[in-house]
Amino acid sequence: MERYGRVKIHLDQLLEKNGLSKTKLCHRAEMQMAQVNQYYKGTITRLDTDVLARLCTVLNCEIGELLEFVPPEDGDQP
Question: How far apart are CA 35 and CA 5, in angstroms?
Fold first, then answer.
């Protein structure tokens, strides 16, 4: 686990909850599939507030439903 914890993205769960495919999300949020895939897989390294707003709008969710802070394990803290 990361030294300072990490941010987990729950895009997969929200897509399922809303009955949306990644393709439909791309269309409705006006995003490229490659970018959606990075958020979906959790491989994105820099979060874009505009993209987060688009995702929350299309998925009808709060930011806390999309993002979760996972603190570091006890031995990993600085």
Answer: 23
Task: Return the CATH number at 51.
Answer: 1.10.260.40
Distance CA(24)–CA(26), nearest Å, equals 5
Residue 77 lies inside a defined structural domain of this protein: no
Contacts with 30 (C-beta within 8 Å, 6 or more apart), sequence order: 54
Which domain, by its residues, includes 59?
A: 6-72
What is the model's pTM? 0.86
For residue 1, how many C-alpha atoms fall within 13 Å in the half-sphere facing its CB? 15
* Consecutive 10-residue averages of pLDDT for the chain (78 residues): 87 97 97 97 94 98 97 71
Structure-block tokens of residue 58: 């299309």
